[in-house]
């Protein structure tokens, strides 16, 4: 709630952060990750700097341990502020992991950037990415998961093979 006590606690937290209280910044950051909003973002940007904060948000948005809904909320917030990762491969990964399929299609129409991100990711990120791709529907799953190098298909994990076999059998 935004009652008097809540407002007092908020102002105290903001003042504590101004004095360099890392614990206050961490509490505020965790709250923002759970429910991204402008007010906390503005305070965090003042404490941590806008570039460092945006980088942390991008990292959180592609964190495979984070719930897909939370990743999507972070992506919606960042997109609303015009914030996207600098690199093309990181941007493709960000768009897909945050449920922004239209932006991904515009930035990576053939899926090659996402395929590159997939090949460079750890297994947990690959699994989360496969889950996000399943919801996107119209991406070239074979190209993304199997990748360009012809020898890659022979090294696919059991999960990757199963992930590709179902949609292909359905088609």
**Which consecutive residue ranges, at least 5 long each, have pLDDT under 50?**
none
Order of helices and strands: HHHHHHHHHHH
Radius of gyration: 19 Å
Total strand count, please? 0
User: Mean pLDDT across all residues, rounded?
Assistant: 81
Shape: elongated
Describe this structure in words.
The longest helix is centred in the N-terminal third of the chain and has 15 residues, at 4-18. The model has no long low-confidence stretch (mean pLDDT 81). The chain is an all-alpha fold. The protein has helices at 4-18, 22-34, 38-48, 50-61, 68-80, 88-97, 101-107, 112-120, 123-136, 141-146, 158-170. It contains eleven helices and no strands. Helices cover 72% and strands 0% of the residues. The chain is elongated, with a radius of gyration of 19 Å. α4 packs antiparallel against α5 (68-80). The termini are far apart.
Outline of the structure:
With 171 residues, this protein is mainly α.
SSE arrangement:
Layout: H1 4-18, H2 22-34, H3 38-48, H4 50-61, H5 68-80, H6 88-97, H7 101-107, H8 112-120, H9 123-136, H10 141-146, H11 158-170
Helix pairs in contact: 1-2, 2-3, 3-4, 4-5, 6-7, 6-8
Short key terms for the protein model shown above:
0% strand, elongated, 171 residues
